[in-house]
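User: Teach me something about this protein's shape.
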Amino acid sequence: MYKPSEDTFLLEDCIKGIKGYNALDICTGSGYIAYTLSKNFKNVIAIDIDINTLLDAKKSDNISYICSNSASCLNTKFDLITINPPYLPSDDIDDITVDGGREGVEVTLKILESCKRLMHRDSKIFIVCSSLSNIDKILKLDGFNAKIVKSKRIWFEDIVIIRAMLK
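Assistant: First, the predicted structure itself:
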């Protein structure tokens, strides 16, 4: 299980004041962000690829957990979507909690594509990324207006939070 770390807390800083009806947390890991969302949203769905992680995730009455590698299994519109995906560049996927593909964004791009149809015109997505990854591919993804809203230097990389909305 991916335990809450600096990237999790940076994401939390970006979303903690946002309120709404439906929220989605993809790559939920420990469920820390889903639990944070559950305080300001009526319904929260938390998705992770690892069933064992979901069994151990933080629980709340208004959080539903789904085992999946994307949001393609959903049909609901969400006010807020958070994604803390594996984002480190890697030729081989040895550790699904950190390996994000050759450029570090392949997993993220797949997830973002699955989210487009779940958004309304005011929906926001917050995505955790690393400066070691090809962040430009996310910032320039067709159909989204995206920008970096927060960053923090941690050891050898900058952890960045990208906010994206539909064009």
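Now, about its shape. The mean pLDDT is 90. The helical segments are 6-15, 32-38, 51-56, 106-115, 135-139. If you'd like, I can walk through any region in more detail.
User: That's plenty for now, thanks!
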